[in-house]
């Protein structure tokens, strides 16, 4: 019954919506958009200002040297939105200029271009901080807390430089050029290719990497880079404190601990849980522990032999929803991706593809959608969820 109060699986109270109210409310909250062959949305149903979405995305087309290049990207911010906002503002321009220069020089190496652009943005974030404290750790150690606070908490340029270091973001970029797709991933967002063969069968292919502490390869990489430090990965997290093993920002995991104790812990606004930050500092012995080096995969579109093909880019909120709804084990990207392609290849699918996939992952039925959409809480009950869908054939 519409308006009825019920308890969801986690014991939280929600309001039952019936159709078409549930679909209308989902669309209002997720802000679906369509731009040519691309559909996008971003959802965080909790309305508390402190819980607003930290996801950001890009959907842009460029004409370069009489060719159309398309960029689709998702940035999943964490601990705040400053780093994700900075990526939206800076990374497209860096990529565009690098692409223009490479095409003009006739020396196009897209994987290297993507890796370097992302790493350069991260490096500049750190350099901006170092420029505020040119004397390095020794000079920083001689400053008083009041002097540090006065310098960094100016509610202006300096504050933003510090916040970009304190916060972090994953990066997922699909660069689509003539006959080719390259996907750069840093963190745990997902990109999946769906392709329909000449026989009419759909196949899925994961085009992103899963950079988190639960990935044995990533855990082993970090342990090998920090020999003798058994707690460099602890409880599936870097230093037992952060799930992702690669990200832009998050300089408290990339710099000596004095930068955290003297700068980040004196910054305003600070960390939501400063005690947790102090807890892992004792394990910060030989930084950096987080990497800004992305993995890049390539697809030559004609080689697919496909009659139709599309890309799905998604923040890990969709992976979480998929696990709940489709019975997929936690963090199984290829399995989730296969399901997403299956859903979006349905012959009766209509409307915005990103919204269709989101609604299906939420359980489709009005009551299931309501149980995730209308929860009565001032704290978030589900992760930010962003989806970018685009056709490539």
Give descriptors for this structure:
Phosphatase 2c, domain 1; 393 residues; PP2C
Helix content: 25-40%
N- to C-terminal distance? 43 Å
Mean pLDDT: 96
Total number of helical segments? 13
Class, according to the CATH hierarchy? Alpha Beta
Q: Based on DSSP secondary structure assignment, what is the total number of beta strands?
A: 17
Q: Per DSSP, what share of the residues sits in E-state strands of 2 or more residues?
A: 15-25%
Structural class: alpha+beta
The CATH architecture term is: 4-Layer Sandwich
Largest sheet, described in full? 7 strands, antiparallel
CATH homologous superfamily heading? PPM-type phosphatase domain
Number of domains: 1
Order of helices and strands: EEHEEEEHHHHHEEEEEHEEEHHEEHHHHE
- Assign an overall shape: globular
Segments where pLDDT lies below 50 for 5+ residues?
none
CATH topology: Phosphatase 2c, domain 1
Multimer state = single chain
Question: For the CA atoms, what is the radius of gyration?
Answer: 22 Å
Region (Disordered): 207-231
Domain PPM-type phosphatase: 45-392
Protein name: Protein serine threonine phosphatase 2C
Biased composition (Basic and acidic residues): 218-229
């Amino acid at each position: 019954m519409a308006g009825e109060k019920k308890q969801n699986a986690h014991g939280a109270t929600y309001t039952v919506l019936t159709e078409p109210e549930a679909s209308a409310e989902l669309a209002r909250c997720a802000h679906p958009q369509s731009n040519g062959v691309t559909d996008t949305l971003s959802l965080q149903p909790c309305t508390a200002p402190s819980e607003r979405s930290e996801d950001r995305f890009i959907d842009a087309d460029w004409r370069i040297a009489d060719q159309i290049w398309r960029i689709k990207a998702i940035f999943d911010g964490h601990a705040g939105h400053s780093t994700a906002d900075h990526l939206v503002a800076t990374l497209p321009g860096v990529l565009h200029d690098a692409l223009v220069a490479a095409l003009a020089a006739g020396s196009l190496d897209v994987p290297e271009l993507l890796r370097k652009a992302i790493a350069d943005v991260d490096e500049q974030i750190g350099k901006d901080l170092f420029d505020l404290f040119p004397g390095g750790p020794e000079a920083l150690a001689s400053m008083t807390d009041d002097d540090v606070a006065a310098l960094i908490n100016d509610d202006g340029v300096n504050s933003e430089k510090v916040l970009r270091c304190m916060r972090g973001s994953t990066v997922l970029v699909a660069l689509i050029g003539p006959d080719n797709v390259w996907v750069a991933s840093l963190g745990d967002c997902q990109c999946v290719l769906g392709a329909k063969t000449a026989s009419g069968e759909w196949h899925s292919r994961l085009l992103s990497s899963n950079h988190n502490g639960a990935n044995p390869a990533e855990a082993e990489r970090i342990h090998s880079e920090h020999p003798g430090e058994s707690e460099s990965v602890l409880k599936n997290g870097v230093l037992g404190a952060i799930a992702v093993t690669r990200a832009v920002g998050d300089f408290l995991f990339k710099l000596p601990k004095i930068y955290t104790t003297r700068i980040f812990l004196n910054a305003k606004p600070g960390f939501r849980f400063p005690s947790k930050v102090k807890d892992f500092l004792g394990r910060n012995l030989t930084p950096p522990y987080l990497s800004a080096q992305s993995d890049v995969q390539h697809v030559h579109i004609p080689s697919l032999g496909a009659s139709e093909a599309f890309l799905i880019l998604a923040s890990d909120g969709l992976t979480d929803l998929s696990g709940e709804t489709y019975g997929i084990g936690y963090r199984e990207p290829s399995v989730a991706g296969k399901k997403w392609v299956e859903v979006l290849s349905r012959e009766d699918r209509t409307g915005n593809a990103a919204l269709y996939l989101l609604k299906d992952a939420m359980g489709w039925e009005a009551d299931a959608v309501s149980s995730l959409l209308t929860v009565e809480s001032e704290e978030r009950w589900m992760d930010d969820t962003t989806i970018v869908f685009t056709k490539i054939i």
